[in-house]
Amino acid sequence: MTGLESFASALWALMTPMALFHVAWATLLGIFVGSLPGLTATMGVALLTTLTYTMERDAAILVLMCMYVGAIYGGSRSAILLNIPGTPASAATALDGFPLAQKGRAGYAMGLATAGSAIGTLVGIFLLVMLAPPLAEAALRFGSFEFFWLALFGIVISGQLTGGSAPLKGYISGLIGLMVAMIGADGIHSHIRLTGGWDDLNGGIGLIPAMVGAFGFAEVLSVMWQAAPQMAEKTRRGARSLPRLLHLWRYKFTIVRSGVIGTLVGIIPGVGEDIGAWASYAAARRTSPERDEFGTGSTEGLTAAETGNSAVVPGALIPALTLAVPGSAPAAVLIAALFIHGIRPGPMILIEAPNFIYSVAAMLVLGTLAILIFGLALTPLFIQVLRIPRAWLMPVVFTLCVIGPYALTQRIFDIWVMVAFGLLGFAMRQMRYPVAPLVLGIILGDLLDKSLRRGLILSDGDLAPFFTRPISAAFAALIAVSILLAIPPVRRGLAARNPFARKPS
Amino acid sequence: MRMDTARADRITAILLAAIGVIMLWAGWTMDRLEFRDIHPASIPGLLPMILGAVAMVCAVLLFVSAQDAPQAAPQGSWGAMALAALWSGVYAVLMVGALPYYVATTIYVAGFLMLFDREAPLLRRAITGAVFGIVTAGGIGVLFRYAFLIRLP
């Protein structure tokens, strides 16, 4: 069966009333979650994971995929109307979306964001279907040496790209995640490590409590710390208009380019939607004849940002499904959810569940259709949702943060873990440390540890195979270049030679 | 109060160095499982030792490169954040498990509204808070208990 046939078959299998019902409510919930400042896609997927424990496998995965697609798209609502990105992924959207709203074109901006998101996700889905199977096949040749470098590459590149101007802080965040992953029974000899005699830590720190804390409770604290947002005045009367197809056609190259950039950024481990949006936005600004309008209400800038962040969603699932290395923070939660529901992501996925990648692609297509329908039809409703006071919303969110991690293991200890990671996550945000590498470190710590020690056992303690096997050597070189680029004098030297660098006016 | 300053970076660097030393020491002194006759390269303390050493290197680099954030972020209300953290912490750590879930959640949600929804008069806040607390606790509790078959704390 060809890939296209497998995809069509997976899509047909989802055409049941119950599956479509799941698509509708989960996407709508995702859009609400994404649109409300303080609720992120990661938090939404993590909390919804706790609600899917008892669901049938395919329905649970479908619901989580739709939540992910909906939440990333939903972030554009508050970015456009409040100038506050509902999710970090929509930060670039706010640059042009809010000025458009202030000019009384909020409805048009939201329509454009909807179309951009839908097309971006479709571009990403196409690349997911094309790239995931060969990547999984290639990964079947990976041994312990390659997996060691892959895990290290994920931490380094995630720290580098999410750390922004201070990659060291990104590295430190990843390092803390790796240290957290060392707590509990080790993966080879089951020896209990670094628990300080605390029995509750024997099984390690749970990913779901840590993520719900770092992204949920930390967000609650951040929202309570910030000043209450104000909605753009002119949008209160809600001028609505759909984007004309002609406008979208004008930006066809921007849309395709942003979709491809977003997907490729998604494939890079632990980087995520916000970087996808910024990279697409920067590429559009460099090549656009309207570059001077960027930041003041450019429709092309808005389209690029929204297409870019949405294309990251399928892109992030490519390494998540084929290598068990998440391309973004929500994808990290999805990996945990897949394990809970009996799917083992990684190179063996093509053998154990050969059609699963196509099923995921079909689920994403349905989620995309849903955001298109809801996004264009329910704009006034979303504007009302944004008016829910935070004093009413945040206690509900925190209540879910408490009961969600507890529901998985029914241990009070996991609630304490959630609280601890919430405080840590808030402190990290305040100190400008990215949180995504921390999560990636917790996920990849076990892989890094086992691969290093297994590799050393296989080579009888010799380090040479870590550097001489072709794929290992390539990863090692990539990591070395990444770290080299993080050194300030090297960065400054390269920036001085960059012809696209903005000159001070 | 800002936490993105050079001083904060230096304090973090000292903490990180301390954690690095602890990891290195813990990895070094960790059981090498000789009695199981394992390969010496697979000792459980190997990666903790490496991570400890890397943490110390990062701590030195952070201390040396510590600087104030180039653009100061707009400052929020630390009082509101601390109050929210304290009240939420009391609920999560002290009330859940000690009180029945429905009671604890109702008190928490009602208390949160009374503390932060300052636009309404106190009596109205108390009544709406209590009603909203009961609805929230009931809704979430019933959902998890009867739909997802979770034994509530």
Please explain how this structure is put together.
The complex is a heterodimer of chains A (505) and B (153). Helices cover 72% and strands 1% of the residues of chain A. Chain A has helices at residues 3-13, 17-35, 41-51, 57-82, 91-102, 106-139, 144-162, 167-181, 207-225, 245-250, 252-267, 273-287, 299-323, 329-340, 349-352, 356-377, 379-385, 390-409, 412-430, 436-458, 465-468, 470-486, 488-497; strands at residues 184-185, 192-193. In chain A, α4 (57-82) packs across α5, α6 runs antiparallel to α16 and α7 crosses α8 (167-181). The termini of chain A are far apart. Chain B has five helices and no strands. Chain B has 153 residues and is mainly alpha-helical.
* Low confidence ranges of chain B: none
Order of helix and strand elements from N to C terminus of chain B? HHHHH
Quaternary structure of the protein: heterodimer
Describe the global form of chain B.
flat
Total number of helical segments of chain B? 5
C-alpha termini separation of chain A: 58 Å
Helix content of chain B: 55-70%
Strand content of chain B: under 5%
How much of the polypeptide of chain A forms β-strand, as a percent range? under 5%
Name the shape of chain A in a single word: globular
